[in-house]
Structures are given as C-alpha cells and as structure tokens.
Amino acid sequence: MGTSAYSAGIGGSEGAAKPAFAGAGTSGAPVHLRTASEIKRHYGKGGTSGRASDDAKSNDVRGVMEDNKRMLAERGEKLRQLDEKAGELEEGASNFAAMAKQLRDQQEKRAGKWW
Fold this sequence. Notes:
The chain is mainly alpha-helical. It is built from two helices and two strands, in the order E-E-H-H. The chain has a two-stranded antiparallel sheet. The longest helix is centred in the last third of the chain and has 62 residues.
C-alpha cells in the first residue's frame, strides 16, 4: 500500500480515516497548522494584522482629509480675493457713473442741453 494523506485501517479500525499528519512526530503531539496570514506575515508578504491594516487605512484617510483641508483653505482664500476684487470693481463703476453724471451736468450748464 502507498502512503497517502489519509490511511484507512490504522490501528485495526477499518472504517475510520485519519489524517497521516495527525499525531505525527516523535512526541505524539499534534502538528500546529499555520494560517495563510501567519505564513505571509512570517515571510513578509503581507498578511498584516487587523490593527496594522486599520492604522494604514486611518493614515490614508488622515492624508486625504489634510489634503481636503488644504484645498478648502486655498479655495477660501481665492473666494476672499474675488470678493475684494468685486468690491473694487463695484466702487470703480460707482465712481465712473458719478463722474459721468458730473461731466454731463457740466456740459448742460455750458451749452444747454447738447443732445
């Protein structure tokens, strides 16, 4: 008979199938089977623990939030500058209208109505 992972009939019991590795070793103690994440962590291929993964995600979120804050501050500054410029343009337009009215009044006084 060849060796396989399951050997039927070990120890005289015909119907029970036992894994060949259960109880393997000289001490008779069961072999510890590692999970995929344990193996990956051991060889440095990922398999990060939940805490490390959460920390990395929170750092990513923190970075995005900081970028958003910075962009929001820049936007606020641009809006403030636009508001100042609009105020200056409004004041300039008001001054222009006042000077145009003043000029019209002067011309009316000189020659009567000229239009």
